[in-house]
Amino acid sequence: MTIHHRRPLGLLALTTLALTLAACDKPNANTTSTDTTTTSTDTTASTSGAGSTGAAAGGDRSILVVQESSDIPTLDPGTSYDTGSGQIVENLYETLLTYKGGSLSELEPLLATKWDVSNGGKTYRFTLRDGVKFHTGNPFKCADAEYTFRRNLVTNTSSSGNWFLSESLLGTPSNANDDKSITWDKIANAVKCDGETLVFTLPQTDPAFLAKLAYAGQGIVDSAHAKEIGEWDGTEATWQAAVGKDLTDSALSRNPSGTGAYRFVSRDANNFRAQAFNDYWGDKAKITNVVIQKVPELAARQQAFLRGDADLIEAGTRANIEAQLKGKPGVVILDDLPNTTASGLAMNQNIQAKDRLGSGKLDGQGIPANFFSDADVRRAFVSSFDVDTYIKQVQNGMGKARNFLLPDSFPGYNPEVAAPKFDLAAAKAAFQKAWGGQVWQNGFTVNATYRAGSQGAQTAMEILKKNIESLNPKFRVNIQPKQWSEILQDADKGREALVVTAWAPDYADPDNFVSTFYSSQGFYHPRVGFKDPQIDSWIQEARSTTDAERRNQLYTQIAERARDQAYYILMPSSPAILPYRDNLQGFSKDDYNPMLSFSTFGTGTHWKDLSKS
C-alpha cells in the first residue's frame, strides 16, 4: 500500500513521507436518535475548524481528536490504497481475519471464525461469524463477502490493492480490460458461497493468500446497502461495465457501511467524524467519537497537542518530535518501534506529461520524457543524495542507509549488500557521461514533487536539489509541494517526473515490496516506467518457491542489480516514534503491530482499543 501503499502505503504508507486526510460528505442517513445526540456534542466540540478544536474536544473522554496535514482520497475499501484512506477503512470495516497482537505472521479470525485449506493449498473454506450487523442494521451474510471479493476482482483499478487479490484468485494482477482471459465464470468460480460458507478456489498455491485477506482493503462491504445507493449490482449482466471503474468518489465512499466498531458520521473539507457503533458484535469501543482534522501547519498541530486540544497528531519528523514535544507536560513518547515501510525517490523513465517537461529537450530549460532512462542520469541522482545528512536532519541520527526497497525487518533483506553512497565526484562523472555528454554541456530542468505538509519529504528534495545544482550552474531541480491525492492521481498516470514515494506492506511477505517496486507488472511500474527482464525472472522464481534459502538468494541478486542500475534513490530506515497525550491509553510496544497501522503516523492499533482517562 502506498504511503501510498497501507499503505498506497497505502497501503501503505505510516511514515512522514506519505499521508492523507479529510474531504467532504453528508452525515450518514442511518443515524439513530441516541447517535444524533452524541453527534451534536461531537460537532460542537470540533466546529472551531482546522486550526483548533477547543479544550472540550481534546480533554473530553468521549472524543478522540486527531490532527493531520492533508486529505482523505476515499472511504471505499474497494479502492483505498493509501494510509490516509486506510486508517478510516480499517476502523469502519472488518476483514475475514487479522494479525494477532504484535505478530507480523500469526493470523486470527475476525469476521470468519475458522477456515480449512484443501486441494493442495488451492481451496479455502471460511466459516463466517453469526450475529454480526452492518452499520445500516443489515445482517452480515456470506452473500456480502461474495459480493465484496467479486466487486474487488471486477473493478480492480490501478489505484487499489486488488491486483494482489486478482493475482491469487485469477492468476493475473490485471483487470478484464487489460487481460481478456478474465471472464465472469472465472470470477464467479474463484469466490462463491456454499450455503453460508465462503469458498475461494485458487488456480495455484499461494502461501501468502491468508495474509492478503487480512489487508484492510478487503474489508467486507454491506452488499444490500451498496446496491441500494447505486453501486454495481453484482450480476453477470452488468459486470463488464464495472471493470476498472474509478471508485474514489463512489457512492459507497460518500456513504459507507461496514461492520467495524465505528460508523461513519460525516466529513467536510477539514473534518472527518466517526462514532462508536452501538450494535457492534465484539467488545465495544471505549471512546465514543473520533474526530480527524485537517491542519496543514505543523506548528499549529504541535501547539494544539501541547495544549491538550488534540490527542494524536502528525507530529513531523523525529527531529521535530524530539525538539518540540519530548519531555513536555502531558506528552508520552513511544520510541524505537518497528518500522515496516520502505521509501525512495522514484525517477520516471517514461514521463507522460508534457507540462512537467519544460521545453521537453536537453537544452537547459527542460528534459525529454525519457530523461531518466539513461542509467548514468539515475546514478548521478543517486550519488547526489546525502543519506547521512537526511538521517541527522530528519531522523535525529536514528536509522541507517538501505540497500533495497525492502524493510530490514523482513526476510529477504541482506545487510551484507553495500548501500549506495553519497559521492559528488561520482555524480559529476556520471552526469558528464549521461546522454553522450549532452546533460553536462546543455544542462537540464527537472520538476520534482513532494507531499505538501511532509517535512521529511521536503527535506529530502531540498538535499537533492542543493547537491545537484552545486555541480553545474546549468542544472535546475524545481521542487513543488502538492496534495497527496493529486500526487496519487498524477503518479498513477505516469505524469510525475521525480516524486517521493513510500510503501507500507499489504501483507507480510517480501514479495509485496519487491514485486511492487521492481516488477514490470508491479504497482509502481506506471510511476517509474522501467522494465528489467532479469529482475522480472528472479521475482517470478522467488514468488513460486517455498524454499526460504533460495528466495533469500534471489532477493539478494535483485537488490544488487537494482542498486547497480540505480532504479530508485533509497531513503534510509528509521525506527518509528509515536507521541501521544498521557490521558490516552491502549498503546504498547509489545502489542504494537505495524500491519494494523494504516494511519499517517503509525499508531499500531485500532481506535476501539484506545481509551481516555
UniProtKB/TrEMBL annotation:
<comment type="similarity">
    <text>Belongs to the bacterial solute-binding protein 5 family.</text>
</comment>
<dbReference type="InterPro" id="IPR000914">
    <property type="entry name" value="SBP_5_dom"/>
</dbReference>
<dbReference type="Pfam" id="PF00496">
    <property type="entry name" value="SBP_bac_5"/>
</dbReference>
<feature type="domain" description="Solute-binding protein family 5">
    <location>
        <begin position="106"/>
        <end position="523"/>
    </location>
</feature>
<feature type="compositionally biased region" description="Low complexity">
    <location>
        <begin position="31"/>
        <end position="57"/>
    </location>
</feature>
<dbReference type="InterPro" id="IPR030678">
    <property type="entry name" value="Peptide/Ni-bd"/>
</dbReference>
<protein>
    <submittedName>
        <fullName>Periplasmic dipeptide transport protein</fullName>
    </submittedName>
</protein>
<dbReference type="InterPro" id="IPR023765">
    <property type="entry name" value="SBP_5_CS"/>
</dbReference>
<feature type="signal peptide">
    <location>
        <begin position="1"/>
        <end position="23"/>
    </location>
</feature>
<feature type="region of interest" description="Disordered">
    <location>
        <begin position="28"/>
        <end position="57"/>
    </location>
</feature>
<keyword id="KW-0732">Signal</keyword>
<dbReference type="InterPro" id="IPR039424">
    <property type="entry name" value="SBP_5"/>
</dbReference>
